[in-house]
Amino acid sequence: MNAVDASLHRNSTAADIRHDWTREEIRALFDLPFPELIFRAQSVHRLRFDPSKVQLSTLMSIKTGGCPEDCAYCPQSAHNDTGLKASKLVDVSEVMTAAQAAKDQGSTRFCMGAAWRSPKDRDMDDLCEIVEGVKAMGMETCMTLGMLTRDQAGRLKEAGLDYYNHNLDTSPEFYPQIISTRTWQDRLDTLEAVRDVGMSVCCGGIVGMGEAVDDRVGMVHALATLPSHPESVPINLLVQVEGTPLTGTGRVHPLDFVRTIAVARITMPTSMVRLSAGREDMSDELQALCFVAGANSIFSGERLLTTPNPGEDRDGALFARLGMSTDGAAGQR
Ligand code: SAM
Ligand code: DTB
Ligand code: SF4
């Protein structure tokens, strides 16, 4: 057995949590025969989670469009002509109504997204009021607002914000081809600020932007070698929106998407791995494979931030067919 095989063998069977994954080891996972990869991912998954449970989060766009950043995938960037109407930060009451509806549908976490480079200090009072309101409803709270200073992170934490979503999106090498208005280091700095104030981190990326397998390796490597593994790891399949530079990018093979989920599960065994954007165009079979590969969370509801998502009816029918059920902790053991 060579060194990479030996370490893979040790780590796919043991219950330890590692932060010293090498790119070679992660590449070797991606290159495993598919049945072997899925078996290892499912074995790791079962050590910590009930494989029949899935956690539901609901998204709401609390400030839509007109974003100054140039993220090539994003329908909300002012650089991309997608016909999206820009709007201001919504009222607290509108958020409360949407959060209550999400709770009634079985969602345990309410994730609020704003199309900002970063929040302005003048927005902080409104944001804190929103967090307090949703928290008082008994839901977990999550926000994604762009870059945060440590002070801003501290204020949101004090208001009751449980999670902050800030994605690395792709490998550090491919990143400059996707975004030029903020750096990889900017992202790491925000993640550090969030971690330092004691908030849970939701951090993942996107597959299907024309990246090479080694970029998926680099993305998972960056996530799995953060000082602590993100509590949630959203894996998005690019939603191609007309008017963004990435429209027309060659589609990733569905089984290669499943491989990314499986490798995220194996390398970050205690994280919730979220099958995120892109479910609208996925078959039931593909989604089922993602759950078998270790995904244990989804976004529920008819909309992500601005694009469609399967509604409760389709998701309910899928979970019934799979004999799976929803659980806020995704059956954590
Ligand atoms: N403006 C904030 C930021 O970028 O941090 C928060 C909102 S932003 C829409 C959150 C994440 O959504 C991005 O980091 C990206 O990973 C994901 N996302 C955006 N557009 C997407 C698309 N078309 N397909 C898949 N994921 C997308
Ligand atoms: C994440 O990783 N995916 C979600 C959430 N975090 C904020 C957003 C997906 C957005 C898809 C495009 C849209 O609907 O605008
Ligand atoms: Fe703005 Fe976020 Fe979209 Fe980038 S991903 S353009 S920062 S809303």
Overview of this protein structure:
The protein is an alpha/beta fold and 333 residues long. It contains eleven helices and ten strands. Strands 1, 2, 3, 4, 5, 6, 7, 8, 9 and 10 form a ten-stranded parallel beta sheet that branches. Helix 2 (23-30) packs across helix 8 (213-224), helix 4 runs parallel beside helix 5 and helix 5 runs parallel beside helix 6. It is globular. The mean pLDDT is 94. Bound molecules: S-adenosylmethionine, 6-(5-methyl-2-OXO-imidazolidin-4-yl)-hexanoic acid and iron/sulfur cluster.
Please tag this protein with its features.
single chain; 333 residues; alpha/beta; 10-stranded parallel beta sheet; 11 helices; 10 strands; binds S-adenosylmethionine; binds 6-(5-methyl-2-OXO-imidazolidin-4-yl)-hexanoic acid; binds iron/sulfur cluster
Record the SSE blueprint.
Layout lengths: L2 H11 L9 H8 L3 H15 L4 E11 L28 H13 L4 E6 L9 H13 L3 E5 L5 H10 L3 E3 L18 H13 L3 E3 L2 E3 L5 H12 L7 E6 L16 H14 L4 E4 L8 H9 L4 E4 L11 H11 L2 E2 L7
Parallel strand pairs: 1-2, 1-9, 1-10, 2-3, 3-4, 4-5, 6-7, 7-8, 8-9
Helix pairs in contact: 1-2, 2-8, 3-9, 4-5, 5-6, 6-7, 8-9
The protein binds S-adenosylmethionine, 6-(5-methyl-2-OXO-imidazolidin-4-yl)-hexanoic acid and iron/sulfur cluster.
